[in-house]
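Internal tracking record. Fields below are filled automatically when a chain is submitted to the structure queue. Please do not edit lines marked as system-generated. If the sequence contains nonstandard residues, flag them in the REMARKS field before resubmitting.
Queue: standard
Priority: normal
Entity type: single polypeptide chain
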Amino acid sequence: MSADTATGTQAVDRAADLVALVVESPDPLSFSEIHQRCGLARSTTSRLLSALERQGLLARTSAGSFVPGSLFVSYAAS
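SYSTEM-GENERATED OUTPUT FOLLOWS
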């Protein structure tokens, strides 16, 4: 059992990595681009992206690509 699994932080670490990937990208990222870059299973990637979108950390463009969510916009405006 890894230290991340033992402390229950593996999912948090993975989600944070996905947020950083999207936030640091100069362009919106498609699901496929994120999946290829993160190295997680498709189902895990999809589940984490959905959770991050529900919480306002990520958002989707009209084309379906991922961008920083409303939480970042609110924070940047303050």
